[in-house]
Design a protein that fits this description.
mainly beta, six-stranded antiparallel sheet, 11% helix, globular
Length: 148
């Protein structure tokens, strides 16, 4: 009962040192969102709780133990919502590029769970990012230092 973007966000929100994608391999073939599953680490240096309300929504950021990359996952319950997420956990001396896996406007866990947008955006510590979460939805981000 989730969108694809929320399923990706679970890799960050729910801590587990063993990550897996359980399904038929045919369901992952030619699916660009599978890249997030290939990229996401399982060992974390730091975890930050960005926001949340029990039973409603949560946003968690985790820094990879072996790189300078951050991963952010945000999920909502059955209520669609817009969440403003502060990037103040990022290093103030760096610019970053985020790969964002998020719900589309017409995504919905019942009617259209697999509709996802993958986009890239430059970020700094000073920015707030507004993420639109569909009903039963979420967003997953890989945030890597920007190499000019």
């Amino acid at each position: 009962n989730t969108t694809l973007a929320k399923q990706l966000a679970y890799y960050i929100v729910l801590y587990s040192p063993v990550q897996m994608a359980s399904d038929f391999i045919e369901n992952y073939k030619d699916q660009p969102a599978f890249q997030f599953i290939k990229d996401v680490p399982v060992d974390w240096q730091t975890t930050k709780i960005i926001n949340g309300e029990i039973g409603d929504f949560v946003t968690i950021a985790r820094k990879d133990k072996n790189s300078e990359d951050w991963y952010l996952g945000t999920i909502t319950n059955e209520n669609a919502r817009n969440l403003e997420v502060s990037m103040d956990f990022l290093d103030s001396e760096k610019e970053y590029v985020a790969t964002i896996y998020r719900d589309r406007k017409d995504s919905d866990w019942k009617k259209n769970p697999n509709d996802i947008i993958i986009e890239r955006k430059k970020l700094t510590k000073k920015e707030n990012l507004v993420l639109e979460l569909s009903s039963g939805g979420g967003a997953a981000l890989r945030i890597a230092p920007y190499n000019k």
